[in-house]
Design goal:
Order of helices and strands of chain A: HHHHHHHH
Oligomer: heterodimer
Shape of chain A: globular
Structural class of chain B: mainly alpha
Strand content of chain A: under 5%
Number of strands of chain A: 0
Distance between the termini of chain B: 64 Å
Largest sheet of chain B: 2 strands, antiparallel
Strand content of chain B: 5-15%
Distance between the termini of chain A: 26 Å
Number of strands of chain B: 2
Radius of gyration of chain B: 25 Å
Largest sheet of chain A: none
Number of domains of chain A: 1
Amino acid sequence: MVRDRALAEDLAQETFIKVLNGIKSYRPEFKFSSWIFKIANNAAIDHLRRKSIDTLSLDGAPGAETPEQMRATSLQLGDRAESPLDEVASRELGTAIERAIARLRPEYRSCILLRHVEGYSYEEIAETLDLPLGTVKTYIHRARNELRGYLEDRRD
Amino acid sequence: MTDLTMHLTTDEIELWAQGLLPASRAIHLADCSLCRVEADRERKVILELVQLPKFAPSAGFADRVMAQVKVPTASRDWQV
């Protein structure tokens, strides 16, 4: 989810502390592993959102002075393209599939990893992430399409 | 009875990529190049996902967690 082993371990640690300190709020009608995944997923998504807010500049490059320069260099909300610097860093930080996953929306990322890495059924993902079953299917199909696109772009 | 000429759905392609599509539907791939191309692309992505490395936590992970867990005492108070 976060493409950083040390950070993933910090988030896992935060998750297990929350799980063990909040064990009284666990409801046995849900699978225990789903409850843990839900807490872990929330921790990862919170982190990714915080990171996105920390690094997003809407005003353009620091040196941009005119409105045209600011517009030309500003990031647009929803712009998920890698910057040249990101791209150089990405090349050194994992396989093509890992980089492609990193470009997915966090919601798509959670669904696709639970489905194809953890082997969850669509129903289990819906329960774990509190999403309607149809939404889970849509997210997974869109995520796979986006991954295919990213991977095929790189091979061209 | 399913029409053999009917294209595979996205769900069926996922099942095929995992080796779970019934032969009665998988046979469609032999005659339909559109579905075959789509299914091959889908399978490549799923295979890449399945092969992602998994990591175990580093040594001392459990101790670091337990150091921050509030353990109930006999008096039912919580202590750190």
